From TrEMBL:
<protein>
    <submittedName>
        <fullName>Arginase</fullName>
    </submittedName>
</protein>
<comment type="similarity">
    <text>Belongs to the arginase family.</text>
</comment>
<dbReference type="GO" id="GO:0033389">
    <property type="term" value="P:putrescine biosynthetic process from arginine, via agmatine"/>
</dbReference>
<dbReference type="GO" id="GO:0046872">
    <property type="term" value="F:metal ion binding"/>
</dbReference>
<dbReference type="GO" id="GO:0008783">
    <property type="term" value="F:agmatinase activity"/>
</dbReference>
<keyword id="KW-0378">Hydrolase</keyword>
<dbReference type="Pfam" id="PF00491">
    <property type="entry name" value="Arginase"/>
</dbReference>
<dbReference type="InterPro" id="IPR006035">
    <property type="entry name" value="Ureohydrolase"/>
</dbReference>
<keyword id="KW-0479">Metal-binding</keyword>
<dbReference type="InterPro" id="IPR023696">
    <property type="entry name" value="Ureohydrolase_dom_sf"/>
</dbReference>
Length: 370
């Protein structure tokens, strides 16, 4: 971690890039990237310098929420394409949620073949450091999960009253986002809980020998929580094991999609609020996998599932939680705009982005008010 703020800002300039540029391309999506630049900066040229200058104003920004895009789907494993989430979701937020605003840190510089530095040998790390930083002996990390955790560690150190809103990317990215958040809040003496919306438990210990991925990230952040049951999951419905297995094995708390339908979102969230108050929780982090929503509303994702939450049910839960607890960190994951598994007339990408933007705007607004 950078010791001084100036060192940290230098790290941001090296390890991040302007918003929307996290996917390295030559011509693909050039027009979309330029459109985002125009919306954010009012121009398409010279954006690199404008973005770097903006980083110096983080502390003075009125916004508590800072957007960080992580355009990586290397930790996924079904349909790919969530690496385009940060570019598309930013554009949708600007177009459809104009009242919502946040400081934009930009995107993590993603080498798309990499996941975490611990999986790499010295030769690969050196080659990637040379490619990213023109220095094969650089001290900076090269894989997206490693860079994300390092950047977020520094962010919470230097700007403790602000929070990161992460845009993915596959759900493995929530591992470094939540880990950095939980470490920082623990050091501040805050008791926290992770509110996790997902069709899947993400509680594997490993998947095909890889311990950090979209299906296992929750397992590996439990040790940083005050207690395992401070991980509360909503919308689960696609699992090879019963709810009792997951709660009994890991000590987490789950509210499956069918329970929310049967009991009502208001009744379920009332139970959760009672639990959180009994546990003396101070602040919440919300991690939202878009496939928590039924595939009618979120088909442009790597693993769309039937029988999920409606956007109204998800929003009911979020609104009730935000009225009782500050939401000081959040993320939106697994929006894959170029996938289209919907049979409806309207493209699944358009519908998924619309609902993802509504939920993201609510979370960003809640973070700014926290």
């Amino acid at each position: 971690m950078s010791n001084s703020k100036s060192q940290y800002l230098e790290k941001l300039e090296n390890c991040l890039c302007p918003p929307g540029d996290g996917v390295f391309t030559v011509n693909t999506a050039k027009e979309r990237k330029e459109a985002l630049r125009q919306k954010l900066y009012g121009q398409t040229e010279g954006v690199e310098n404008l973005w770097k200058d903006s980083l110096k104003t983080i502390e003075q920004s009125e916004h508590k929420a800072a957007i960080l895009g992580i355009s990586s789907d290397c930790g996924g494993g079904i349909l790919r394409g969530a690496n385009w989430g940060p570019l598309f979701l930013r554009s949708t937020l600007i177009e459809q949620q104009p009242e919502t605003s946040a400081f934009d840190l930009g995107d993590v510089r993603v080498i798309p073949h990499l996941l975490h530095d611990k999986y790499l040998n010295e030769g690969t790390i050196s080659n990637c450091q040379k490619a990213l930083y023109q220095d094969e002996n650089s001290d900076y990390f090269v894989a997206p999960l490693s860079i994300t955790e390092d950047v977020c560690d520094g962010f919470y150190k230097h700007y403790p009253d602000k929070g990161v809103f992460g845009i993915g990317g596959d759900h493995s990215i929530s591992y470094p986002l939540t880990k950095a958040y939980l470490k920082a809040k623990r050091d501040q003496g805050k008791r926290t809980a992770i509110i996790h919306f997902d069709a899947h438990t993400d509680l594997l210990v490993e998947r095909l020998g890889i311990d950090l991925c979209f299906g296992s990230w929750c397992t590996h952040i439990l040790e940083f929580l005050p207690a395992p049951h401070h991980l509360i999951q909503f919308g689960i419905r696609s699992s090879g094991k019963a709810k009792e297995h997951w709660e009994g094995t890991f000590g987490v708390k789950q509210h499956w999609a069918h329970e929310i339908r049967e009991q009502g979102a208001e009744a379920i969230v009332a139970q959760v609020i009672e639990q959180l108050k009994a546990d003396n929780v101070d602040e919440l982090y919300v991690s939202f996998d878009i496939d928590a929503l039924d595939e009618e509303f979120a088909a442009a994702t790597g693993t769309p599932e039937t029988g999920g939450l409606t956007p109204e049910e998800a929003m009911t839960i979020l609104k009730a939680l935000s009225e009782e607890f500050p939401i000081t960190g959040a993320d939106m994951m697994e929006i894959a705009p170029f996938t289209d598994s919907s049979l409806a007339g309207q493209s699944s990408s358009e519908t998924t982005l619309r609902e993802g933007a509504k939920l993201s705007a609510f979370l960003i607004d809640a973070m700014n008010k926290a």
